[in-house]
Amino acid sequence: PATIKKIPRISCRDFFRADYLIGTRLPLTGVLDGVRWSTEHTLADTAIRIAAAGLTLSLLPPWYDIDTADDLTTLAGHLAALRIANPAIAFSRTETWLSEHHG
Questions:
Q1: How far apart are CA 3 and CA 98, in angstroms?
Q2: Contact status, residue 72 vs residue 98, Cβ threshold 8 Å
Q3: How far apart are CA 91 and CA 15, in angstroms?
Q4: pTM metric for this prediction
Q5: Residue 4: is its pLDDT beyond 70?
Q6: What single DSSP character describes residue 86?
Q7: What are the pLDDT digits (tens) for 39-49?
Q8: CA atoms 98, 99, 100, 101: torsion sign
Q9: What integer pLDDT is reported at residue 68 of this predicted model?
Q10: Distance of alpha carbon 98 from its chain centroid, rounded?
């Protein structure tokens, strides 16, 4: 989005105790010191440290890892439900891959 170019920003996600993405245009030297990584505190710690540094926090929607065949089945069901809820939503590459590789 255009706003990413305008302000310092960090986007992160903590779901199943996993950090997915931290992105910024500025060096983060020391900003994330003291974050309790890979715990139930990671997201809160990260948000507090970002706010204390005067940066803007933006969170992505929670998502999940795809590690097993069961995870692919969950993803396929999730995308099918999202498609029914909003036919305009775009997951065409993922849906194509799933139709070609996952029953």
A1: 33
A2: yes
A3: 21
A4: 0.55
A5: no
A6: -
A7: 778 888 888 99
A8: positive
A9: 87
A10: 21
b vs e for 20-51, b when ≥16 Cβ sit within 10 Å of the residue's Cβ?
A: eeeeeeeeeeebbeebeeeeeebbebbbebbe
pLDDT of residue 13: 47
pLDDT in tens, 12-41: 444 555 555 677 887 888 999 998 887 778
Give the DSSP per-residue string, 7-61: S-EEEE-EETTEE-----SS--TTTTTT--TTSTTHHHHHHHHHHHTTPEEEEPP
Tokens of 58: 């933006």
